[in-house]
Amino acid sequence: MESQGRAASGSQPPGAAFARVLLKLSGQALEGPGHMAIDPTRTRELAAHIGQVRERGVDLAVVVGGGNIFRGVAAATGGMDRATADYIGMMATVQNALALQDALEHAGVDTRVMSAIEIKAVCEPYIRRRALRHIEKGRVVICASGTGNPYFSTDSAAALRALELSCQAILMAKREYDGVYDADPSMVPDARFIPALTHLEAIERGLKVMDTTALSLCMDNDLPIYVFKMTGDNIVRVLAGERVGTVVSSAGENGEGRV
């Protein structure tokens, strides 16, 4: 397992700060004008960004949300059974994963979709050792259906898969904001940008980095989270070790995180 060993040992490809990362995308990242759930143009742009990661020789797994199609929590608030709503949300993530896979393969990036809920007609079941093998072969692995369990968000799935697949960091790519703020910038115009903080600070201050379960898992395992806007060459800059957006790590303001 050459690639897995490289990630575990911290040896990076030339010019890259990481050997292996997990990219967390919200469902809204695929959304287009007029609330189009999956916009082909936007999806191709995402595929181009992901292709840049592979061009640098960095191993990559992706977890994508489903909020552009269906939000389980919102449906449960409206009276739907929470577990049923969450399962429907998991199906939405599969739709997004398949759309992203199609765009990536059109861009020449070898990709596999692996679902925590078995849907053998359209994608593989998520099996950790098989996912690692795909990554070792240079394929992008898109992990769909969250953790496969209700009451767990795709943030929790991102933290879990990142640890299972020996990723060195989670890259949280945002569509609207360039990092973490001390308040919602859409509600508070003078919200202050936070360049670095610890996982515990994010939990205690209720900052919307990831949900509490995901942040706790990252904190317990010293897994840094890089939050930045998915635009221009930001993802390349993050991979090169530049400070872009917000770093959530064990070190907080006293360090760069584990790079």
Describe this protein's structure.
With 259 residues, the chain is α/β, with parallel strands linked by helices. It has one domain: 3-Layer(aba) Sandwich (Carbamate kinase). The chain contains 9 helices and 11 strands. The protein has a 9-stranded mixed β-sheet, with helices on both faces. β1, α2 and β2 form a beta-alpha-beta unit. α6 packs parallel to α8. It starts with a helix and ends in a 10-residue tail after the last strand. The N terminus is likely disordered.
In the CATH hierarchy, what is the architecture at level 2?
Answer: 3-Layer(aba) Sandwich
Number of helices: 9
Derived from helix and strand composition plus strand pairing, the structural class reads alpha/beta
Average of the residue pLDDT scores:
90
Largest sheet: 9 strands, mixed
Name of the CATH class: Alpha Beta
Query: Measured on Cα atoms, how large is the radius of gyration?
Result: 17 Å
Q: What percentage of the residues does DSSP assign to strands (E)?
A: 15-25%
Measured between the Cα atoms of the first and last residue, the distance is: 21 Å
CATH topology annotation = Carbamate kinase
Q: Give the overall shape.
A: globular
So, the CATH homologous superfamily?
A: Acetylglutamate kinase-like
